[in-house]
Amino acid sequence: MSAPLHVFDEAIRLGGPAAGGSCVGHAPDTTLFVRGGLPGELVTVRATGSTRGGRITFADVVEVIEASQHRVTPPCPLTGVCGGCDLQHVAPSFQLEWKAQVLRDQLQRIGGIEAIVGVPLYQAVTVTRPTSAEGSNDAATADDGALGWRTRVAVDADAAGRACFHAHRSDHLVPVAHCPVVVAELQAGFGHRWPSGQRVHLALGQGQPTASAAGDDGRAPNGWRVAGTVTREAAGRRWRVAVDGFWQAHREAPDLLVAAVRRVLAPQPGESVLDLYSGVGLFAGSLAGDVGASARVAAVEGDERAARLARRNLHDLPGVRLHHGGVRRWLGSPVGREVLAGVDLVVLDPPRAGAGREVVAALAASSARAVAYVACDGASLARDARLFHQQGWSLASLAAFDLFGMSHHLEAVALFLPPDSELLPPTL
Questions:
Q1: Which of 85, 95, 101, 149 has the smallest number of CB atoms closer than 10 Å to its CB?
Q2: C-alpha 144 chain-centroid distance
Q3: Does the global pTM surpass 0.85?
Q4: Residues ≥6 apart with Cβ < 8 Å to 305
Q5: What is the DSSP letter of 182?
Q6: Sequence-distant (≥ 6) Cβ neighbours of residue 365 within 8 angstroms
């Protein structure tokens, strides 16, 4: 059980940003993680929860006494109520530095990393954002790219059938009439009446909005389709994706991440590729063209539906072999061990929890000349980076992207190289 909540009569001076969209503050006998603040601000706060016997307290800003120069008016009236966007009060340009600071701290504190190929983290780790915000309805902020980017979203219908998001850390439903981070083509989904109590997934595919469920009248909004899958275009190919399955939400994310992986791996004709947690086949299918039709590409995915869609998406690529199964178990199988013994390049795109000790150890013992790690969580990336380092591998490069404007999330592509790599500079 949580300890009794502190009541804070004194103003709190906020420190740096922390994982999860909060700033760190301190009060007698407790460390605060405060939502709605900015580094350096003087604020009053209200406790919302605690842990570790009260030594850690979660809180929200009540009043800003001294505001940061980076504080802005949130673009959405539901900020602080809806649990989806936690950085709307932060200027879009400073959101990039916020996320970079958090990632640097995670790499240093969790990963034990002080520099990347001799470059200090404060120089080596930056965050960039795609500049186009196609579909944004706010011309004043469209150039920042922090709005109008989300092409897939889930809503829960309340008793009246209204589209709702959840409040922060709560089952309470918040009706949403408009969401500024969602593309214009999906906005009609927020004004529609959906079946009460149902979760509905909205997605954009080939320019047409699609819903996973129909309304009480049996129809989705005018011009929409009701289906279980959508078709997306990325990396010069078409991809069939489940409406409620995994696919990057940002319009530009698939192309951007494929380009980043290609850049760090520099695949050559004839090389073999292993794509772990391969989803519907984005990286396997994209790299297959780089290594050539006769090259071997193995893709491993544990989700049966995603693996089935991958077979459909990659049926024209004879060099790709798809394997349905858990990654850790597959790596220890006879087929997995055979692939590891002859692989040249690895794409590792694990879930938010990261890859873990067994997967990293298997890759570190393989014949791979490089591993491209696609990360959606900085702490997990840092933990796995430490595991790679323990195996003698080096973090050779890191590119971080803000593909989740107005929230604390980011995406990163890291390159890990074995100890005998010719690509490592002499200082390593």
A1: 101
A2: 19
A3: yes
A4: 242, 245
A5: B
A6: 340, 391
- According to DSSP H, which parts of 92-239 are helical? 92-109, 121-124, 139-142, 188-191
Quickly tell me which residue has 């604020």 as its tokens.
Answer: 43
| β partners of residue 157 | 163
Strand 370-375 to 411-417 pairing: antiparallel
| Distance between CA atoms of residues 221 and 187, nearest Å | 10
Q: Which two tokens stand for residue 124?
A: 């080596």
Q: Which residues of 153-179 are buried (b: 16+ CB within 10 A; e: fewer)?
A: bebbbeeebbbbbbbbeeeebbebeeb
Residue 79 CB neighbour total at 10 angstroms: 18
Give the whole-angstrom CA distance, residue 178 versus residue 78.
Answer: 10
Q: Which residues pair with 242 in a beta bridge?
A: 229
For 3, counting Cβ atoms within 10 Å of its Cβ (0-12 exposed, 13-18 middle, 19+ buried), the class is middle
Alpha-carbon radius of gyration of the chain? 23
Q: Which of 297, 300, 204, 316 is nearest to 252 (CA)?
A: 204
Could you tell me what percentage of the chain is helix, strand and coil, using 3-state DSSP and rounding each to the nearest 5?
25, 30, 45
Round to whole Å and give the CA distance between 202 and 213. 9
Among residues 237, 246, 278, which one has the least CA distance to residue 374?
278
Task: Provide the β-strand partners of residue 49.
Answer: 58
Residue 63, both tokens: 């009043």
> Residue 166 is encoded by which pair of tokens?
């959840």
Number of residues assigned to the chain: 428
How many beta carbons lie within 10 A of that of residue 26, not counting itself?
Answer: 12
Contact 178, 147 (CB under 8 A): no
Interacting residues of 73 by C-beta distance below 8 A, sequence separation 6+? none
Q: Is 376 known to be catalytic? A: yes
Strand pairing class (30-35; 56-66): parallel
25: confidence class by pLDDT, cuts 50, 70, 90: very high
Residue whose pair of structure tokens reads 């001799």 in the numeric block: 118
Q: Is 166 helix (H, G, I), strand (E, B) or coil?
A: strand
pLDDT tens for each residue of 248-282: 999 999 999 999 999 999 999 999 999 999 999 99
At 297, the amino acid letter reads V
**Which two three-digit tokens encode residue 377?**
């969580």
- DSSP-derived secondary structure for 184-224: GGGTHHHHSPPPTT-EEEEEEETTEEEESS--TTS--STT-
- The packing angle between helices 253-265 and 282-291, to 10°, is 40
| Token representation of residue 393 | 């591998």
Residue 412 has which token pair? 């990163």
Tell me which of 23, 82, 85, 376 is the catalytic residue.
Answer: 376
